[in-house]
Amino acid sequence: MSLLLSGRDTPTINLVFNPVNRAQDGFVKSTASRGLFSGAFGSGKSVALCTKGLKLSQDYPGNFGLICRKVRATLYQTTLKTFLELVCPKEIIADYNKTEGLVTLTNSSQILFGGLDDPLKLGSLNLGWAGIDEAIESNEDDWKMLEGRL
Question: What is the pLDDT of residue 134?
Fold first, then answer.
């Protein structure tokens, strides 16, 4: 991932994704409304999910997306760390509310990192996109709840 900045106050963003394999590249570039990327340990699933979410948030300013996992605490230790350290350039983060798990980008898009372990907190969200990391931990009810938020 690289970043190109230009202009005085508003950066021009050129995010470059360097996939580790064709499956990862296909997932990130897909325009399908629903997608699944499965693979072995180290195949880049979390990076692909975070990259796809960042791309949707950059392509549609003011978008509100969710990256989740069954248990919020586990998400913070893994996926959120991947997003902040490997995927999202610090220059495009306007604000990061650690308590809420909410990243606000310079284009006013927001990405919420949450757990499916407390569905009441997610039940009233109006989402532009959503992604589940380690979906094998989730069940059909989790999927249906997210579908209803889109």
Answer: 86
Q: Is 10 inside any structural domain?
A: no
Q: Counting beta carbons within 10 angstroms of the beta carbon of residue 66, is it exposed (0 to 12), middle (13 to 18) or buried (19 or more)?
A: buried
Q: How confident is the model over 131-143, as pLDDT tens digits? A: 999 888 888 888 8
Output the domain CATH number for residue 89. 3.40.50.300
Structurally, the chain folds into a number of domains equal to: 1
Q: Give per-residue pLDDT as tens, 15-74.
A: 666 766 787 787 788 787 888 777 667 667 889 899 999 999 999 999 999 999 998 888
- Within a domain: residue 15? no
Structure tokens at 148: 């209803």
State pTM to two decimals: 0.85
- End-to-end, the C-alpha distance of the chain in Å comes to 28
